[in-house]
Amino acid sequence: MPRTAHTVTVRSLTKSFGDVQALRGLSFSAPPGAVTGLLGPNGSGKTTALRCLLGLARPASGRAEIGGRRYAALPDPSTAVGASLDATAAHPAWTGRRHLEIYRRAAGAPRRRTSEVLEEVGLTAAADRRIGGYSTGMRRRLDLATALLGDPGVLVLDEPGNGLDPAGTAWLRGFLRARADAGGTVLVSSHLLAEIGQTVDRVVVMDRGRACAEGPLAEVAGDRGLEAAFLDLTGATGAEVLR
User: Fold this and answer.
1) Could you tell me the pLDDT band of residue 238, with boundaries at 50, 70 and 90?
2) Nearest to 64, CA basis, from 21, 17, 30
3) Whole-model pTM?
4) Which CATH architecture has domain 8-86+152-242?
């Protein structure tokens, strides 16, 4: 059961890298009790937006807040937010358990959390195997377990389904659904429309650093379906969506 969840709020966020404007006044929200999908073609600014939310990048203007506070101002960030953006650095010679123990201590989480998160993500049987022998799906589960160590009320995940086989994808879908149903806030970025359409309650469609649609999945998708709506909103080609 996640801790008290908070609404994620992004307002008028701008960010540039040299001459490239990655975010152009981006605004959206992700409330508790729902899985919110941040969708967009590659290069639309999804990862940059999440990095600004987590204090890993500084926006030129605008605000990105969790429960009305910037990430850096949260009194105990590890219990408020769990995140998986880039793949967590994991030494291939370490076991999954050792990896989690190191991160648990850094987060100040109680000792029991290592075993609890291993159970939550289905890695208990592989906990004492070296990470170098983990499959892509097992590494994804380890990333998620690391994000869960503080039992956060908010989960922020960048492309969590990449590299998962069908069984792993179905498991992830059920896990995120259960987390939201328990009152947690779940914000997931993706460009895999078929999968995200089975997972989320709400969608934010991004294109060129802006939100071009936001709302309940059924409302944004309409009668045509999510893929058709997405292509119309972003002008993306099928190749861009699948890439």
Assistant:
1) very low
2) 30
3) 0.91
4) 3-Layer(aba) Sandwich (3.40)
